Amino acid sequence: MVNKVNAKVTLMEEHAEILKFLAENSKKHGKYDWVTVLNKFNKLNLMTTVDNSIETRRRIRHIAGKVSEVDPSKFLWVEEALNRKEVIQSQNESSNSSNVSSYIDTQDTNCDENSDDKRVPKDNQLPHDDKVIREYWLERFNILLKQKKLPKRIYYCKPYQWQWNLVNSILESFIVNLDLTEAKKFIFVAGVLLNEMTMGKKFRKGKYSDKLKKKISENKSLLEKVTNNFDDPSLQTKLRKKFPKRKNFCKNDWTSFLSILINKQTSSLTYWLNKEKLSRIRTAFDAKPSLKSIQMLLNKNNRKNDLNMNEATNFYKNLYKEVEFDLENAKAKSKDFIEMYCSQVNGRELVPAFSISDIIARLSNWKSPGPDKIFGILYKKLPCAFDKLQSYIEKCIESSSIPSSDTKAIIYLLHKSGDSNSVTNYRPISCCNTSYKAVTAYLNEFIIAATAETVMNPNEQLANARNVWGTCVAHYRDSSLVLDKKFTANKAKNTLVSAYVDFSKAFDSLHQPFIKYLNKHIIDSDSLLYCSDLTI
User: Fold this and answer.
1) Tens of pLDDT, residues 458-480
2) How far is CA 150 from the centre of its chain?
3) Where is the composition biased (Basic and acidic residues) (predicted)?
């Protein structure tokens, strides 16, 4: 806790003059009101929220006390920003809503150039009307366009709302006339820019271990110089400045001191790395309470991957190669089944349960992206990216095609169990682009509408049921049947039999020619409606 407070106070020293200005304006009966000072400082969103504890107030009082006088004219923007608090709060509440269109309407209303309200924030809710901030981040955007860097994590919360609005306005100026395929590069860069703004040096946590690594490296370098070249005057000057209390040390003293210091820092680094690892494990366990996942995280650095990738590539090429398929035989076998299905859906309209905007809103924020490296949160929280994705899905549905760039994926091989050298003991996981996931999710709504309550998807079929885990349902039903039989055994002598059928590689056994044949005769791909003549 002390380290966190120290880190925040160190950051707040950069804003010592602002703290002094707020303190002078918050005087009550000639005394400083430090609670009010901290509350106002947090409203400015200049850094992460500072806790209003006694220890923090004492340290802030010390920081502001170092500044003798401040020029009030330099901080007029502070008063304007605090006066806009109510307007900014109302916009933040609307922006957190899942309805993106209402968010855009609110922003257009609150940013009306013809409005006479002086509190209305201009330039997309910047903390103050300083165009220099926009120009700086616009320049950073252009620099990042030439780089490739995957954003680790982006925070989305009220204190960071103005950063998201600023990036959205910058991004919109670049992609206004582009389709999604061309705009993906700019959306990715917007994610990197947001990562810098919301998780830069002032917002980054857990960096104590990095500082320790740097100190250990510096001290090792000093120890090597002391051992090899202690008589160098510049080295001795550097040592005395860095460790003033030990200015009278001789060579042996310095060697012993630096060795002990390095050992202490190394043990401290080991402690903090273990602490960070345990923190990650706790977070993972909260998200998915599984002992198996805990064991995988604990042994992550100890696992050795001896799999031959060339062998794995050849294995999957042979596994998914085209095989011979007798289409006419399949037609004859499934004729009665298809006729029954056609009679069930005759006159039915294909109406998906969710709209395109609902599909985008349901995208996962942090699921692993595909080759374009764009997380779902960027499409959900940046209105201009949201509109591009919505237009993209509509275009794919109208043209009955998906761009080739979205048909690519990154495939990871996850070890299941057994020999790690055998490719059969790995499960391939494909990470597709988020835009591809959105298109297929919308198409899935049509499939669900077309197969609901038909022989294609009967109630007994659990594999495709929503929010249902087949093995869990089977276990509960078995348990209830056993209990029911136990209590009714004395009353009736009836024999009870139940069975669950699990087809091995059921979905791997589907053949594309037959699926295309069914689609051609049942669903019109141009309009996504049933064909007028449902005969096979």
Assistant:
1) 877 777 777 777 778 878 877 87
2) 11
3) 116-126
